[in-house]
């Protein structure tokens, strides 16, 4: 049972989901400013790739990227056990495991010790990132689901920005605290997320799928904006319960009694097709080259642009601020313009930024360095607007309830394995082929444009159950058509039905 109802509950859910992704963002950004710090390179000379160091760039890439392997295994744990554990328990377990990993990293004195800590923390983050978007989506109303996830991912980038400024501030501290404090700070965010989840409800869709109908009805009532004015037996709540129950029955009839392999099969509801779209969105997010900048922006500013270490840290901090500001844009546009338009806008802009970045780095002049820095800022703007939140949202929106946990876990695993690829090869690529590194990311972004345009349906303002209708029938519908009924939550559809009984298929539910 929850003590909050209506909009306060919705905001508490969004804040807690955001806290989990703030932790995710902080994890991503924290290593960027530590790799070239005096205390870090003194403790780990094997990965000191600064001008005075003789460390291995390949080993540096492995130490940073091994975190993604932990995240990948965390996503696989969700794939196999997430549906049984439930959304809340998965997230709480992720917070505990991540805290252990953060403690191991903060206390590391050797490369193997650091690697173990990063893997353990990664497992916890993999559990969180596989589950939080699903939990959040299943507790959101159709007309604000995109906005809620956009806020969540904006907080994620606030975490990246926080990491950059913590690194910059600690660069003035002598001794091991220079890198140990930033690594240990992850534990604070994990505790906040754990406590938030402890006080908030389970997904009503998971509850109905596990025959806890009374609990689900209470949660569906509690998340109504006017919950204080209606009862749990209100028509709006009953309609939601009936619609979700119907979707579960249809999903189970299209599957083989909940078989694990359903996610890999196409049938009347195109399970595999929908899973591949979610995985493709996560692949596009990483192959855009964003983590080339997120993990190694300080290295890029020093090696490719020619800045001093202190200036590189400072510019990285301002880059994080600009990145965060860009993520505020989709909060107001994602449910107005839709997912497809923002993704196309981002891919086109990112392609141009990477192409210009390649040319400026190849030029090597001071003026070109200024333009290169501008392109790094601009790339983050395009990414923050269109490819940051949406790939995390689509797996939860596209996948039907019977396979939603497993489909989202596979999409998240795809994200982490491609993140590992990018983070692993970046130091070696910059050392060996320099500006050509940015050329192949420009090509990748260009290729995303036709993929998005021809294959990705628009779920804007549709309930998760209505999204199922886009994938049923002779062919996949890229857009909702009025002949399919009135889009949106039960409140809107009931109002339409009262005005015109022929306009919608909503029925009274006793």
Automatic annotation (TrEMBL):
Residue intervals passing through the bilayer: 64-82, 89-109, 148-166, 181-200, 311-332, 344-362, 368-394, 406-423, 435-456
The UniProt entry's GO CC annotations, sorted and at most eight, read: membrane
Q: Which residues form the Major facilitator superfamily (MFS) profile domain?
A: 13-460
As for subcellular location, the record says: Membrane
Specify the protein's topology with respect to the membrane: Multi-pass membrane protein
What family is it from?
Belongs to the major facilitator superfamily. Sugar transporter (TC 2.A.1.1) family.
Stated name of the protein:
Major facilitator superfamily (MFS) profile domain-containing protein
Tell me the organism. Answer: Aspergillus nanangensis
Q: What is the lineage of its organism?
A: Eukaryota, Fungi, Dikarya, Ascomycota, Pezizomycotina
